[in-house]
Specification:
mainly beta, five-stranded antiparallel beta sheet, Immunoglobulin-like, 17 strands, four-stranded antiparallel beta sheet, elongated, single chain
Length: 212
């Protein structure tokens, strides 16, 4: 930009204003999607004008307060590893664009993609009952589980049919479980992650017989 006096002389040196760098990212809302890729799930989104980076937030259903936040910088995707096999993580996620002036508009929350393998868990004393739908063509299944707050995941041996029992667990303890189906062609299908708290054994009650 330049300003001149009446004689045509430059009164102020020319300078440039970079509007996009000094304003918050566009009001456009990113469009997000998720897809399975090998042993990972890929979260992706479109470019937003004016954005210099993107913040990804993901969480399991009902646990947004414990969401994980990742600065993806100027990348339009994020690869989430799926321990124990391929499929879909069942995670919800949002993407927020940003630049030096602040944050833009957060995307709508992407609902978790449904898996072809559905796992249901119910509590028992020091155990969990597992039930799932039969996945056509599956050779066998393996259950992976971990105690609440424990990063170490344990696995069962091979399972067949549509039910099993995880025994030998702590009583009154929370666990997360997911199932992996192993297909004849070498591919894997991962179920949703189910959570439950084991039951506690009720101590026997003794009654004193009243003497006549």
């Amino acid at each position: 930009m330049a300003v001149y006096d009446a004689a045509g002389r430059s009164a102020i040196q020319e300078f440039t204003v970079n509007v996009s760098a000094n304003c918050a990212a566009s009001a456009a809302k990113p469009a997000v999607s998720a897809r399975a890729s090998g042993s990972s799930e890929i979260f992706s989104w479109n470019r937003v004008d004016g954005a210099t980076g993107y913040t990804l937030k993901y969480w399991t259903s009902g646990n947004e307060a414990d969401a994980t936040t990742v600065d993806c910088h100027d990348i339009f995707g994020y690869s989430y590893p799926l321990p124990g096999g391929a499929g879909m993580s069942g995670l919800n996620f949002t993407v927020t664009p940003y630049n030096g002036a602040g944050e833009g508009v957060t995307s709508d929350a992407a609902a978790p993609a449904a898996s072809a393998l559905t796992l249901a868990v119910s509590p028992a004393v020091g155990a969990l009952n597992l039930n799932w739908n039969a996945l056509s063509g599956a050779s066998y299944y393996i259950a992976s589980y971990s105690a609440a707050g424990d990063q170490n995941t344990q696995t069962t041996g091979t399972l067949s049919g549509t039910s099993s029992v995880l025994s030998g667990l702590e009583e009154n303890a929370g666990y997360s479980v997911y199932l992996t189906a192993f297909m004849p062609n070498g591919s894997l299908v991962r179920s949703n992650t189910a959570a439950a708290t084991t039951a506690t054994r009720t101590p026997p009650r003794f009654w004193r017989k009243r003497m006549p």
